[in-house]
Every structure is written in structure tokens, then in C-alpha cells.
Amino acid sequence: MGIVGPAVAYVVFKTCRKVNLSVLIAVFFAAALGDWATYVTTSLQLALAFPAEVGGFMGSFKIFATIFAITQIPLAIFEGLLTALIMKYIIQVRVDITDQLKVTTTAVST
């Protein structure tokens, strides 16, 4: 669970940048999809640990995924927006940091 989300976020960010999406859009998608991947993984783990009496693993997975979806879909969208806003602020205030990490270049920072 703690590995899948960041791994998905990294792959999504790199893929978005390779197809020339802006840094802020890439950050939004990375944060939102990384969050969703974490909770899908959590649902899988919980379903494996607590299979339903009726429906087994899949029945349990559907229940956990539905419960997480109700809360995590809107939260992931909000987290994606908030993370993009924070990245915009960092780019405006300290673009040297993002340049050093090779997230942006001074010439093209958005």
C-alpha cells in the first residue's frame, strides 16, 4: 500500500511530462491517481485478509472498494488540486529547487 501509490504517481508524472503536459497538470494527475492506487491496493489487501462469507474475496473487495470510493474519489481530486497549487507556489518562489530536481527548467516552468 505504501509502495504502490508513490510508484503509480511517479510513473504517471513521468508519462504526463513525456507527452508534454504541463508540470501542474502532471502533478495533479500524479497525486490523484497515486491516491486512488493506494486505496485500490488497500481494498485488495483488506479483501485478502477478510474475505466475505458470501462472495469470498471478490465480494469483500467490492465492499471495501465501494466504501473507499465514496470518500477517496472527491478527496483525491482535492489532493490533486492542492498539490498542484503547492507546486505552482514552489515554482513561483523557488524555481531553482525544481530545476535542480529536474522537474522543470527555468525556461519552461509550467
Task: Give an overview in words.
The mean pLDDT is 91. 27% of the residues are buried. This protein has helices at 4-18, 23-49, 56-93, 95-100. The radius of gyration is 17 Å and the shape is elongated. It has one domain (4-100). The protein contains four helices and no strands. It starts with a helix and ends in a 10-residue tail after the last helix. With 110 residues, it is an all-alpha fold.
List the helices and strands and how they pair.
Elements: H1 4-18, H2 23-49, H3 56-93, H4 95-100
How many strand elements?
Answer: 0
Shape: elongated
What structural class do the secondary elements suggest?
mainly alpha
Nearest-integer average pLDDT: 91
| CA radius of gyration | 17 Å
Strand content: under 5%
Oligomer: single chain
Taking pLDDT < 50 over at least 5 consecutive residues as the criterion, the unreliable ranges are: none
DSSP helix fraction:
over 70%
Q: How far is the first residue's CA from the last residue's CA?
A: 31 Å
Question: How many discrete domains?
Answer: 1
Main sheet: strands, sense, barrel: none
Write down the secondary-structure element order: HHHH
| Helix count from the secondary structure assignment | 4
Summarize the structure.
The protein has 4 helices and no strands.
What are the main properties of this structure?
110 residues, mainly alpha, 4 helices, elongated
